[in-house]
Amino acid sequence: MSSCIGILQEYAVGDDWEDYTDRLKQYFVANKMDTNEDAEMWRAVLLTICGAPEYSLIRDLAPAKPSDKSYEELVNLMKRHYHPKPNGLTDRGETSQKCSPSLDDTKFIKPNGELPGQGREEMMDHLNGGSQHHGRDVKPEN
């Protein structure tokens, strides 16, 4: 019976998944478990020590049984879950918020309601969501 170097801890919800898998890889290196020769061992260790909540999550996310997936597939599956790619629609909202005047901009509004360098038509166009374009009045569809 051989002894192992290091102690593996169960993944705790809220920990960074990438940090956890980096530490797990270091455990495998320290214990001379080569990814090519011991691929099944890597998967088995991950599924054993990830903890019951994470194992259930992996089962829910994976279309097949977790034991039918490779170690890399399982790690990437969880990585995509914990670090999803940004959604283009939400990015537009953030851009829109950056382009919209903030409450601090209201201190520059003149007493007549106009912004410096901006006429009433341009201001109304902005407030109405851009219904007037290039001096033409565009009527909303009913």
3D architecture notes:
Residues 82-142 are annotated as: Disordered. It is a single chain. The protein is mostly helical. It has 2 domains: 17-82; 100-135, no CATH class. It is 47% helix and 3% strand. The protein has 6 helices and 2 strands. The chain has helices at residues 17-30, 39-49, 52-61, 71-82, 88-99, 120-127, and strands at residues 132-133, 136-137. The protein has a two-stranded antiparallel ribbon. A hairpin with a 2-residue loop joins strand 1 and strand 2 (136-137). It is elongated, with a radius of gyration of 28 Å.
Instruction: Output the number of helix runs.
Output: 6
Q: Given the helix and strand composition, which structural class is it? A: mainly alpha
Order of helices and strands: HHHHHHEE
Number of strands: 2
Provide the helix percentage. 40-55%
Low-confidence stretches: none
How far apart, in Å, are the first and last alpha carbons? 79 Å
Domains, number:
2
Question: How is the main sheet built?
Answer: 2 strands, antiparallel
Quote the average pLDDT. Answer: 76
Output the strand order for the largest sheet.
1-2
Strand content: under 5%
